[in-house]
Write a structure and sequence with these properties.
The chain is built from five helices and five strands. With 144 residues, the chain is an alpha/beta fold. The chain has a single domain, classed as HUPs (Rossmann fold), CATH 3.40.50.620. Helix 1 links the parallel strand 1 and strand 2.
Amino acid sequence: MTAYQTIIAAVDLGDDSRRVIQRALELAGQGNIHVLHVVESFENLYVGDDWFGGGLNALELQQSVEQQRKEQLATLVGDVGNDRLKMVVHSGSPAAEIRAYAAEVDADLIVVGTHGRHGLELLLGSISNGVLHGTPCDVLAVKV
């Protein structure tokens, strides 16, 4: 079996994100690893004139959160300490953005964390489940 050449480690920047990246590194061989975080889009958020003193709009809020997440991702990748990791931050629907980015970079594998939920949470779905259905490549769910 040949090693995966292009791997996406999709992380939520939570405590278990490092574990997802480590698993991607184990599987990568000499391949590329894209560490992807998706910020939920704020485009449907209504921020009225009186909210936050009237000085903040949804676009500014989105940009602020994205900048914050880029900094958090840089810290996470720096802590892992591997120069093969490429950091990527997108905004939108997480499952859709992960699938789209996988197609864009012609990924061989997407590594995501899953909490192994069941029952009602399983029926409602999750980002991992959303990535699995309709993805152009293999998906590995790491139990975190």
